[in-house]
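Support request from a user on the community tier.

User writes: "When I paste my structure tokens into the form, the page sometimes reloads and wipes my input. The last time it worked, I copied everything first. Here is what I submitted, just in case something in the input itself triggers the reload:"
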């Protein structure tokens, strides 16, 4: 292990802690851009339906969130 010191700083976003680097690191506007608002939802489905969704996720290398979001967007775009 090397003797480099790690600095931890407080971000300007709600007091979140983050690592402070001499180059790059936490900057306003950096990182992946969001595409929507995150809201937690509890969804009750049959085991059979969850299996279909999970199989679709595996076959298409997609997350559950992405698959369910695509289903909803398709339904409401009609």
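"...and here is what came back when it finally went through:"
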């Amino acid at each position: 292990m090397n003797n480099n010191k790690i600095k931890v700083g407080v971000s300007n976003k709600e007091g979140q802690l983050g690592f402070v680097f001499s180059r790059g690191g936490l900057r306003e506007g950096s990182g992946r851009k969001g595409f929507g608002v995150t809201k937690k939802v509890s969804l009750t489905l049959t085991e059979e339906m969850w299996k279909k969704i999970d199989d679709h996720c595996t076959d298409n290398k997609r997350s559950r969130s992405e698959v369910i979001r695509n289903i909803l967007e398709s339904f409401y775009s009609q």
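Agent notes: The reload is a front-end session timeout and is unrelated to the input. Residues 36-78 form a domain with the Arc Repressor Mutant fold (CATH 1.10.1220). The chain has a mean pLDDT of 81. Escalated to web team.
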